Amino acid sequence: MRRLNLALAGLAATLVGTAGATLGAGAGSGATNASPIYGVTIPDGYRGWELVAPALEADPLNELRAVVANSVAIEAYRAGTLPFPDGTVLVKLAWKRAQSPEFEPASVPGASTTVQVMLKDSKKYAATGGWGFGRFVDGKPVDEAQHQTCFACHEARVQGHDYVFTRFAP
Amino acid sequence: MRRLNLALAGLAATLVGTAGATLGAGAGSGATNASPIYGVTIPDGYRGWELVAPALEADPLNELRAVVANSVAIEAYRAGTLPFPDGTVLVKLAWKRAQSPEFEPASVPGASTTVQVMLKDSKKYAATGGWGFGRFVDGKPVDEAQHQTCFACHEARVQGHDYVFTRFAP
């Protein structure tokens, strides 16, 4: 049934296009701050979670990023547990890359751009590798069309790491 | 006395130069894993501390970096408390910037390069703005000459932020 819901949501999103899609409720959540399709919200307290790794995204985004994760995720990373267990939550923070005004060789975080969430629930999100996705700008989820791209990209690109790009930085 | 010790250590370091300086003991610590001049060690459990901000350091270092901090520091950051209170500890992790093999626009952490520590003790380190410094490669402190450069650079460059470059990323 979940798989069917996801498939229907995807089809509807394709038909509706990107303008004001509000089909997230079809995935079981009516919360206005929940992502379309998946019903994922920004987890409380994530800014205090442990660091998995920083990253740099080149132009045109030109962003500094950092993935933080809850304790379930960190334990799995440290133990090398794959797939990640249910309850894993990963949050990627992103900021515009800015020139440090005090040290020329350094780039530092500028304005916050997006917060992106991956939440593992192997039953609820069975159709997408066990992962629910949420992409947020200013605390609000982006549209359904953008959320259609999440799993397709992770599935196509990540090699042997349970659809998770980010590895634990030593 | 501490100020005198620091001054003497600095003078001695200048005379000795960079080769195999082991004058750290003169600053009051004989621990082999403690930094010269300051006697600062890598704090236990720092890898699990909260993120302050990521950064990118351009060539020739070409490194991704992330500053994490203990709870004293995080509270000060969030409250905007300056100067940072005694007991503040900041740790900067650094890795070679590597190309993501799975997503072309992304750079990710490669090999770990340095771990750098700032520890606030306004009495012990009164001669250096209240900060003790430690720079470590493979868990071992680098030489005295390198440690001579820490405060001079922070003092000359940081503007109105208690000698701390890194701001809290929103």
From TrEMBL, chains A, B:
It comes from the Bacteria. Transmembrane segments: none annotated. Gene3D superfamilies: Cytochrome P460. The keyword Signal applies. The keyword Ligase does not apply. Keywords: Signal. Residues 1-21 form the signal peptide. Residues 43-166 form the Cytochrome P460 domain. This is Cytochrome P460 family protein. It comes from Sinorhizobium numidicum.
